[in-house]
Amino acid sequence: MNSQVCTHCHISQPETEFSVKKRSATYSTRNTKCKACQRKYTKKAYDANPEKQIVSAARNNLVFRKRNKDYVMAALADCTCAGCETTTMLTHYAGGPSEGQPVGQAVHCALSVESVQQAIDRSIVVCKKCLQIILYEKGMMDWGFMKHAERLAWLAERKAQGITRKPKGHYTQYIPRTPAGLSAPAAH
Fold first, then answer.
1. Are 119 and 104 in contact, with CB atoms under 8 Å apart?
2. Which of 54, 64, 115, 160 could form a disulfide with 110 if both were Cys (CB 3.0 to 4.6 A apart)?
């Protein structure tokens, strides 16, 4: 186990007592102050000028959120939906409670890129429609979605039959004009 001397308190401590400053695939460096001294330094700087620290933190959060959002969008660029193989309106779905944060929360909380990548690795890529189906099947979405899906299926069936005129108003008003052989959706 490697040790390091803190530049503030001059005590030799294990390397784990120093936060990682920069991390990359080839090397990582650690802070020169131990975690305890760094906490004291940060608290002292905050107490000296809290307004400046709050503005700085807010600005950094916006920068990190944008960086994380761009990272997630780049990760989605070459993906297809796990359910229907489409490439539009994709999102990451973690599949329910899992260790760590979901992708959206990792982006919103301005976490590190490594944390965002871990969240991506724990999730699957699905389109918006497949996500709605998954949530409906898990009981996390109400019947309103299924009524909408039935309506869309009915309209798609009509389009396949060559009927292009859309019903006026709510689709249940158009049921008397349903062509032979097509089933109309159930009324509410």
1. no
2. 64
Instruction: List the end-to-end C-alpha distance of the chain, in Å, as a whole number.
Output: 69
Which CATH code is given to the segment(s) 1-48? 3.30.60.130
Tokens standing for residue 168: 């006026």
CB atoms within 10 A of CB 21: 10
What pLDDT, on the 0 to 100 scale, is given for residue 163? Answer: 63
Residue 34 has pLDDT above 90, yes or no: yes
Note the pLDDT of residue 135. 75
pTM value?
Answer: 0.53
- In the chain, DSSP assigns E strands to 3-5, 12-14, 20-23, 28-30, 90-93, 124-127
